[in-house]
Amino acid sequence: MLTHLDSQGRANMVDVTEKAVTSREAVAEARVRMLPSTLQLIQDGGHPKGDVFAVARIAGIQAAKRTHELIPLCHPLLLTSVKVELAAEGEDTVHIVARCKLAGQTGVEMEALTAASVAALTIYDMCKAVDRGMTIDSVRVLEKLGGKSGHYVATESAAGDTP
């Protein structure tokens, strides 16, 4: 059942009034693939625009807090924690992991996905002058805790998994 549709099939925001306030958490990831020389430039701190990871981390945190302004049917949430971690993976990939937490009536998967996605887009924006062939992939929820649906952990091949 698609929760964002009413009985007539029209889009609507889910009513969470009667849902219990519980501790909720979501973790999402994204990967940015690039030339090895681009990743080396980032790691060496030689990028003319500054610390790429620091800017991407801040962008991801800011994006999580504004998810409801970007995704039309998301509730505005009072996040209690947003963490965005970026790390080199191999010689040509940046792995981004975003973790969002709150005590509330609805989950934070969209906020974690938005944080990971915007951090990835920020890396692309900062590095496009030296590497236009970068790709962003593997954007997905890794884990979700709390709420009525309980604990979800993605499998290695999560395509088609239902949270």
Blueprint of the fold:
Blueprint: E1 22-33, H1 36-43, H2 52-65, H3 67-70, E2 81-89, E3 93-104, H4 109-127, E4 135-145, E5 152-153
Antiparallel strand pairs: 1-3, 1-4, 2-3, 4-5
Helix pairs in contact: 2-4
What does the model show?
The chain has 163 residues and is an alpha+beta fold. 28% of the residues lie in helices and 28% in strands. It contains 4 helices and 5 strands; from the N terminus they run βαααββαββ. A 5-stranded antiparallel sheet has the order 2-3-1-4-5, covered by helices on one side. A hairpin with a 3-residue loop joins strand 2 and strand 3 (93-104). Helix 2 packs antiparallel against helix 4. The longest helix is centred in the C-terminal third of the chain and has 19 residues, at 109-127. The two termini are 13 Å apart. The model has no long low-confidence stretch (mean pLDDT 90).
Q: Characteristics of this structure?
A:
5 strands
Quick summary:
The protein is α+β, with helices and mostly antiparallel strands and 163 residues long. The chain has four helices and five strands; from the N terminus they run βαααββαββ. Helix 2 packs antiparallel against helix 4 (109-127).
Rounded average pLDDT: 90
Strand numbers in spatial order across the main sheet: 2-3-1-4-5
Radius of gyration: 17 Å
Low-confidence stretches: none
What share of residues are in beta strands? 25-35%
